[in-house]
Design brief:
This protein is α+β, with helices and mostly antiparallel strands. The chain contains 12 helices and 37 strands.
Amino acid sequence: MIFCSVVATGQKVKLLDNFSDKEQRAENYFAQYKYREASELFSEVYRRDTTRKEIALKTAECYRMINDYLDAEVWYNTGIGQNEDVDPIYLLHYAQALTNNEHYDEAKIWFHKYSEMKAHDTRAQKKIATLDQLHFHFKDSQAVVLTPVNINSDHADWAPARYGNKLVFLSGRGNSDKFKNVLNWKVESYTDMYITHENEDGTMTEPEKFHPDLNSKFHEGPMVFYGDHNIIFTQNESDGHKGDGGHLVLYSAKLDPETNEFENLRKLSFCKGTTSYAHPAISPDGQVLYFASNLKGGYGNSDLYKSEWTSKGWGKPINLGPVINSEGNESFPYVMNEDELVFSSDGHGGLGGRDLFRVDLSQENLVLENLGFPFNSSKDDFGYTSNELGSEGFLTSNRKRGGEDDDIYKFRVIWVAIEFVVVDDETGSLIKEAEIKVFKEGRLTDTRATNENGIMDFVAMPGEKYEFEVIKKGYESHRYRLGTVLQDAGTLKEVDVVLKRDRSVLKEAEEDTTDFKRYSKYYNKERLVLTVGDQVYEYRELGDYKYLVAGEEKIMLDKIAMDAEMSMKERAIEVVTASGMQVGETFELSNIYFDRDDESFMEKYKPQLDQAVAILKASPRIKLEINAFSDSRGTIAENNELTFKRAQMVARYFMSKGVQGSRFFINGYGEQGILNGCDNNTKCSEVEHAVNRRAEFNVIIR
């Protein structure tokens, strides 16, 4: 017996040592960026002890780093579970994985939770705003043809660049070694430059290695060609095994066409220390260089910078600022023409991982434009190059095989790009927030607005006729007719719209003496929560029918005639009692209203807010949506920001009363919830505007 006990104890100790060794090996693999090997060991350790949620989260991080978002989602769900008391970054990564897997509704929940914990980080707010308007990013998708090119291999093929009439791209084919990842980019093997060109039938020739002078023993990255055979390219300065980070640097060189050799190969002067500099792009005149870097003092993990050419060489890097850069990763810039910059980002609102954005650098007020589907997908999209009009080109995406395979795609635009510029006829100033209605064959098909620079972009299909109506309060409306032909495909048509001031004098509205309480009650969305036995329900009325609702459970109550003058609470008690049930606690919930340009409403509506707190405390099964709306006055951007801030104020009040942030969701809808038609083109009284400045509460009982 003693012998068996000693043997059993020894086996147990040996088994524990074995799992301890696996965990240490997993940690070592993770530190060496060998995420797949680490994931296998971490998952074994977790299955041995399923109470160790931190191991599940490390497993999830491994899958995230190799772009396996399906497995990442599973492991984040396992690691977070019902316990939200984890590092908030895991909530963000979970939400991002859900977005990558197109589980958009659930992703919004976790973006909200992260935003509540990290309000200063705008990434989640931008993602939520995109998901709320997801359909907008698919509106012009039928006008773009996107196909994978025939040169793609089983390895990563990415970052195409034009070299005369040829195409140079990066590929990991023929190399299975690994290098340390930098700038948060995942490439599993050393990559070299390859060159190809397009055949008459649209296919690409068999790729060949570009040039022996530039293919080193380390990683070659994205490059740009300009001028007479000039090149600036990215290269790993080391493999990172010496603890120097395996950082990236930029090199310049010039090809001598007679000897076919690159001369003056040198590192750019501002590339210093172990900071990474990568992904070069250059202006058509060769005077401004754009690139990505993790320089200290930036806005996120990697930012976009520019450097201007001087008599002494390339100047000091200048950050492109907070409109372009975010708390995430901005990378892979491309100068489409003299002023337009296309780049990839995972920090702005998008369809999934990294999305492609465009910005006109010539404008005083920079406005980012998401290129939308099919340029963007729920996975990573980057490495864009095109002709000057953006009507034809190439991009890189890992949308194939669930996000684990970088491939090059060719795109061809079959639409006609129309750019409206709306100006004041007296001052010539640009008019923002002008509404443009689009009619096709007499039917309204779309409504858009000019941006901060007075510009509205529209995509028309060749061979169709359109009519546009331009509307702005204080101006006479303007109609413009436009027809397109098949030869217009892939071209840009610029339309200047001059709006004349409206000279008619509106009669001043008489002082409104409407009883606001009675007026607001008409629009108010009342909510009633009550307990029946030990269960919590929301009481709802739909015509003559009354229900008790809790999640999927719905109880139809007796249909009885009730006095219309009774309150909702009185009606509920009567019909529930008549159905043979006993009502316990009741909680009434109604809208709260904001004064114009005044957020100090907390004291005025304290009773309603306290009722909301009481509802949340009545049962852990209850959650609450806080939906804030504004009136139509002010710009769309201002109202979106204002309503989100007001929703946050309500949320902070709830948390001050001891309610956890995970119990409620906040949404700022700006002027999307106008109830009475009081838009920018309608004369309304102050009271009529006031009913639109509100916060509504939506009860969720699971």
